[in-house]
């Protein structure tokens, strides 16, 4: 579905709504009031739909803050690769605890919008950012055709999250996008795009003196794809894949802890 088709569908729903719905575009302008169809649909969605999924962890965040647990927190914010990594929440010691705030399907724009409530507001010592694979997902066109736009969004959003964390004196770990498998038609992500964004993340981390984690070194099959035995779908690590990734993330978090001593 193209954006214009989507906007048309949204407008059809809006115009079919009963008068009590009080559709209120500005008057006297072009298109829908003073808005273009694109602009009106975008603003309608932001008002009436939780685009960033702020509510997803709302209750869990309240409960966490109510615990008054003095142990330092490390927050993991990301997509399904983070959400499915259930061992993160199980990682609790006397010296700290890890909190998983991954949401399936989340892209870096959504992560940025919920960064304050799902990460910063939880008072973490460090935040691990694991995102980008859904920005590269081609919903229309070829996977290669979306790379430029994805690159612009990911680099902009990661920079903003790093800036927010720096302003609160919170340590940041930046993770590379995991490699994808060989079934590229089904996966709908461009391996060259993954490589391009990961190169930028690594360079940005060096410039900002941030901890960087490249899971590719333990997930690769040697040809730049994810090992088939470490994933069931070529995108998400399976338990064996997460076991390979765990020592890398443990070492990365330990570096943020050492930097505070």
Topology:
Elements: H1 3-16, H2 37-48, H3 58-66, E1 73-78, H4 80-83, H5 87-90, E2 92-93, E3 96-102, H6 108-113, H7 115-118, E4 126-130, H8 147-167, E5 171-175, H9 184-187, H10 191-208, E6 211-213, H11 216-219, H12 239-259
Parallel strand pairs: 1-3, 1-4, 4-5, 5-6
Antiparallel strand pairs: 2-3
Helix pairs in contact: 8-10
What features would you describe in this structure?
- The protein is α/β, with parallel strands linked by helices.
- The chain has a single domain (71-259), classed as SGNH hydrolase (Rossmann fold), CATH 3.40.50.
- 46% of the residues lie in helices and 11% in strands.
- It contains 12 helices and 6 strands.
- A 6-stranded mixed beta sheet has the order 2-3-1-4-5-6, sandwiched between helices.
- Strand 4 (126-130), helix 8 and strand 5 form a beta-alpha-beta unit.
- The longest helix is centred in the middle third of the chain and has 21 residues, at 147-167.
- It is globular.
- It starts with a helix and ends with a helix.
- The mean pLDDT is 88.
Q: What is this entry, summarized?
A:
The chain has 261 residues and is an alpha/beta fold. The chain has twelve helices and six strands.
Counted beta strands: 6
**CATH hierarchy class name:** Alpha Beta
Q: What is the name of the CATH architecture?
A: 3-Layer(aba) Sandwich
CATH topology: Rossmann fold
Helix segment tally: 12
Q: In percent, how much strand structure appears in the residues?
A: 5-15%
Q: Please report the distance between the alpha carbons of the first and last residues.
A: 53 Å
């Amino acid at each position: 579905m193209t954006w214009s088709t989507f906007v048309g569908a949204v407008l059809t729903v809006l115009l079919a709504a009963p008068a009590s719905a009080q559709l209120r575009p500005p008057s006297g302008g072009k298109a829908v009031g003073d808005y273009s169809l694109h602009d009106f649909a975008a603003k309608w969605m932001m008002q009436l739909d939780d685009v960033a999924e702020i509510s997803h962890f709302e209750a869990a965040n309240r409960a966490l803050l109510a615990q008054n647990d003095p142990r330092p927190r490390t927050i993991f914010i990301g997509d399904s690769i983070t959400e499915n990594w259930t061992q993160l929440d199980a990682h609790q010691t006397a010296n700290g605890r890890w909190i998983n705030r991954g949401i399936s399907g989340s892209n870096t724009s959504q992560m940025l919008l919920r960064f304050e409530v799902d990460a910063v507001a939880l008072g973490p010592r460090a935040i691990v950012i694991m995102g980008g694979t859904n920005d590269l997902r081609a919903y229309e066109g070829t996977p290669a055709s979306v790379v430029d736009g994805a690159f612009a969004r990911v680099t902009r959003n990661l920079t903003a999250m790093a800036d927010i964390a720096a302003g609160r004196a919170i340590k940041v770990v930046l993770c590379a996008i995991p490699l994808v498998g060989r079934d590229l038609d089904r996966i709908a992500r461009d391996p060259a795009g993954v490589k391009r964004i990961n190169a930028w993340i690594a360079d940005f981390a060096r410039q900002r003196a941030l901890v960087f984690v490249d899971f590719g070194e333990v997930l690769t099959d040697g040809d730049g794809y994810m090992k088939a035995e470490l994933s069931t779908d070529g995108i998400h690590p399976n338990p064996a894949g997460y076991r390979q990734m765990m020592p890398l993330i443990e070492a990365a978090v330990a570096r943020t802890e050492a930097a505070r001593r």
